[in-house]
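Backbone-to-sequence.
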């Protein structure tokens, strides 16, 4: 056998021996298809839909009970299954949803701003009322209330107010919290008992103007004028 032919035969025998010893080499598989390429890829329009749906749902939640969210909820429901819509319909629905979200958010923000303004106005009014009451409850504030009411309701001028000033200065020092532990007389006019002043207002214990109103009415009914009441007080040490 020629040397060349003998070499080919030996090579063939060796190759067969290697293949029979390693079956895996005898049947090498082809490229394995990629699982990701086999799966259906998510459309960009569906990702956009989920993004704007998240915003819309948060807006609807924060707007509930404040403004009408029916329109926005309808658009949310329309786009919820965007995978079933064509690209063109999904894109159009996203545009409608975004507009509805913007309108709802604007209405909600306007509502919140109005509520905040009303709360601020109420707080300012309460503060002003508290400050006015505090001022009216000072001796000077009580005097001013008494002078005004004496003139407007009873027609008493400065001469009568002078007697009233002297009378209640003696009785209480114009202190709405004055209390006589011995007799139980209470407040600026020294009502006995203090609860009588409830006829002029439920706030008689905390409001000097209420005490003044009751005291002036009492003087008018019992004595006619402050000067008559003051004269009686000077004579008997009570009125």
């Amino acid at each position: 056998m020629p040397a060349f032919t003998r070499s080919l035969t030996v090579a063939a025998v060796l190759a067969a021996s290697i293949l029979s010893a390693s079956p895996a080499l005898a049947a090498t598989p082809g490229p394995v298809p990629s699982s990701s390429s086999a799966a259906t890829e998510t459309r960009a329009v569906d990702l956009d839909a989920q993004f704007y749906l998240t915003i819309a749902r948060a807006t609807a939640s924060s707007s509930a009970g404040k403004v009408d969210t029916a329109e926005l909820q309808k658009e949310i429901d329309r786009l919820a299954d965007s995978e079933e819509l064509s690209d063109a319909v999904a894109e159009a629905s996203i545009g409608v949803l975004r507009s509805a979200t913007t309108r709802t958010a604007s209405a909600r923000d306007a509502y919140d701003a109005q509520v905040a303004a009303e709360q601020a106005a109420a707080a300012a009014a309460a503060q002003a009322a508290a400050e006015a009451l505090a001022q009216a409850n000072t001796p000077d504030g009580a005097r001013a209330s008494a002078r005004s009411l004496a003139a407007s309701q009873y027609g008493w001028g400065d001469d009568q107010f002078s007697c009233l000033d002297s009378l209640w200065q003696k009785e209480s020092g114009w202190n709405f919290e004055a209390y006589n532990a011995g007799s139980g007389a209470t407040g600026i006019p020294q009502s006995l008992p203090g609860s009588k002043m409830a006829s002029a207002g439920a706030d008689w214990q905390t409001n000097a103007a209420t005490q003044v109103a009751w005291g002036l009415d009492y003087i008018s009914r019992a004595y006619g004028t402050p000067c008559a009441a003051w004269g009686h007080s000077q004579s008997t040490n009570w009125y």
